[in-house]
Q: What sequence folds into this?
């Protein structure tokens, strides 16, 4: 008689108790799988918004750029050559290369009405506004491959920059509202110069230069910290900054952003010491800490969940030991050894853990499959645009649950099993 | 040739601050093939004596040699091995395992051995023994589908499957009606004769005592009568 077979039959003996224990396990495992899946989906949205909406997966700069980004970013520029772009494009996993200049700029809106002829000042409410923002100069075509999410999020009535030399810019919608800057309709003739916006920026020598622009479109906030940002055409920015033919960074799109570390290492070796290469995680450590915090909270929640479920098993098994004391005494009397008694109860724990894991995983995975195909509309943390969260869990997680749950159940059974094994046959046989 | 040799066996229990003495220096020899009953009033120490002889409990003092081996100081697992190899048990309440059928209950002591024998051979022996105790038609019945007498027959078969030197029976007829009791006693007598297995009973039942070849009477933790040959 295999102990395993005996364990299975013992579990079927008190079906109601086994069912209650199983239900607790199924609810626990389903909750764990569902929560993990949801967190994974939400983290994906967060990463996609950052990587495909703003940063790119990898960025290349002149050495020292990231360290000095707040003091002298324009001094650390690079000649934007087809040869350099070609070298970047040729790296494994790279599917898009976008040249950029990141710079601090100001945008000024025109006065709402002409200056009074008597020389008095315009009332403050009618005066134009000037505000600082962080500008990213881009080539729209190249950029659309690196940050497709940003291109797809332009608010209704607006458009992304039509070309790298168009006199248009795109601003965050809240920022544009604050400036009271209207979106210029597509195809409409340019307004008179006194009704245009002015893009102003200091060049590397400190001289303030500007160009007249219109607001081509607005972007919603789709990632944390993007309220005062704007996008301008690269050629326009190069003129304003006196940096024709130069850029400060290349943003790269990868076919799989989890390969960012490998791509960084490959490019570092390929480009040499004049360039530095950073991954999205290095450039935006907030994301790592946010996902790390989420994972930590998930661990605590699942730990509590799992402990409660396992305590249920401990309780059920202790009751079982109590009920079967005389039977255990009989088994010991006919020669069963203590470790066999332990094994018998452990098998019972493992069986209930395995069945609970399988059922819980099945329900959890069905839930994940359903919500993944339907998608859950939800804004990403720090964003006011809706994203579609598609929950998923990794094979590794599934295997972990599949192995961890029976193991946990076995551990929960260990104490009741040990107690059963320590029974003295004489006392166990004498029990009612 | 003695199978059981007890010398100066004492058993004390600690109950809080009080020490209760159940056996007070028992000397006893039981030969192979004997059919012996132990009688005595409740609390006289007969169950304690049977527990020690059955290696279910250890004496506080004295030596116990079973089948030529001193088992007085064996550890828990060693005693389990001794019980499994040399002793069969028949309990007053049958003590069958409810989730196992008759055949599985009978083979259970052999199945939990360190090196269980071939399943086919074991099942053949089970069938043979079941036939001998009149349970062949019930091999795949669960204990709760059997009468009290049938359950005790299963217990007898389970006690004999290991081919033990000694079968201990603690009031085996206490839960049976008189007809069934008679048939169970007859069965055990036959098996004692056929297989030469030593039977040692504790009982209050005078019908059992009258069949015994030897009767031991215990009183106040001592063998008052029948210890010698």
A:
């Amino acid at each position: 008689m295999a102990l395993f077979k005996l364990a299975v039959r013992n579990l079927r003996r008190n079906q109601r108790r086994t069912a209650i224990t199983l239900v607790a396990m199924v609810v626990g495992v389903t909750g764990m799988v569902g929560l993990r899946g949801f967190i994974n989906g939400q983290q994906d949205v967060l990463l996609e918004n950052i990587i495909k909406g703003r940063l790119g997966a990898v960025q290349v700069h002149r050495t020292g750029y990231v360290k000095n980004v707040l003091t002298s970013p324009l001094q650390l520029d690079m000649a934007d050559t087809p040869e350099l772009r070609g070298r970047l494009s040729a790296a494994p996993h790279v599917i898009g290369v976008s040249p950029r200049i990141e710079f601090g700029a100001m945008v000024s809106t025109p006065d709402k009405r002409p200056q009074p002829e008597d020389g008095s000042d315009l009332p403050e409410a009618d005066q134009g506004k000037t505000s600082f923002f962080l500008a990213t100069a881009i080539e729209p075509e190249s950029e659309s491959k690196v940050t497709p999410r940003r291109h797809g999020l332009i608010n209704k009535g607006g458009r992304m920059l039509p070309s790298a030399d168009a006199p248009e810019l795109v601003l965050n919608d809240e920022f544009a509202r604050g400036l009271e800057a209207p979106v210029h309709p597509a195809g409409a003739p340019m307004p008179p110069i006194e009704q245009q916006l002015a893009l102003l920026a200091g060049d590397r020598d400190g001289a303030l230069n500007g160009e007249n622009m219109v607001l081509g479109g607005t972007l919603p906030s789709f990632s944390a910290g993007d309220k005062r940002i704007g996008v301008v055409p690269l050629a326009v920015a190069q003129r304003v900054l006196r940096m024709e033919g130069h850029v400060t960074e290349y943003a790269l799109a990868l076919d799989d952003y989890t390969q960012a570390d490998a791509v960084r290492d490959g490019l570092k070796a390929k480009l040499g010491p004049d360039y530095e290469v950073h991954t999205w995680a290095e450039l935006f450590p907030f994301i790592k800490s946010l996902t790390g915090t989420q994972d930590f909270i998930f661990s605590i929640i699942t730990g509590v969940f799992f402990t409660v479920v396992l305590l249920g098993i401990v309780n059920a098994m202790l009751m079982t030991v109590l009920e079967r004391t005389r039977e255990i005494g009989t088994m010991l009397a006919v020669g069963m050894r203590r470790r066999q008694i332990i094994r018998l109860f452990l098998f019972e724990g493992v069986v209930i853990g395995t069945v609970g894991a399988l059922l819980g995983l099945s329900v959890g995975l069905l839930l994940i499959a359903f919500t993944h195909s339907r998608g859950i509309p939800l804004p990403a943390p720090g964003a006011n645009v809706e994203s579609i969260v598609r929950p998923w869990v990794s094979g590794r997680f599934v295997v972990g649950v599949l192995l961890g749950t029976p193991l946990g159940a076995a551990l929960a059974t260990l104490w009741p099993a040990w107690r059963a094994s320590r029974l003295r046959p004489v006392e166990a046989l004498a029990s009612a | 040739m003695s199978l059981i040799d007890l010398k100066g066996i004492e058993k004390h229990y600690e109950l809080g601050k009080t020490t209760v003495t159940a056996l007070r220096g028992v000397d006893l020899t039981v030969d192979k093939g004997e059919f012996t009953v132990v009688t005595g009033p409740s609390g006289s120490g007969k169950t304690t004596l049977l527990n020690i002889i059955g290696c279910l409990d250890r004496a506080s003092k004295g030596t116990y040699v079973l089948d030529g081996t001193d088992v007085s100081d064996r550890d828990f697992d060693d005693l389990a091995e001794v019980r499994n190899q040399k002793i069969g048990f028949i309990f007053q309440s049958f003590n069958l395992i409810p989730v196992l059928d008759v055949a599985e209950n009978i083979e259970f002591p052999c199945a939990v051995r360190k090196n269980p024998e071939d399943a086919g051979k074991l099942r053949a022996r089970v069938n043979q023994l079941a036939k001998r105790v009149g349970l062949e038609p019930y091999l795949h019945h669960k204990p709760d589908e059997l009468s009290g007498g049938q359950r005790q027959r299963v217990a007898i078969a389970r006690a004999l499957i290991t081919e033990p030197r000694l079968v201990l029976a603690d009031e085996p007829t206490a839960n049976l009606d008189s007809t069934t009791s008679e048939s169970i006693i007859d069965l055990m007598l036959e098996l004692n004769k056929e297989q030469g297995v030593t039977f040692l009973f504790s009982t209050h039942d005078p019908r059992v005592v009258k069949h015994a070849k030897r009767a031991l009477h215990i009183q106040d933790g001592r063998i008052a009568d029948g210890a010698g040959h």
The CA atoms of residues 319 and 375 of chain A lie 44 Å apart.
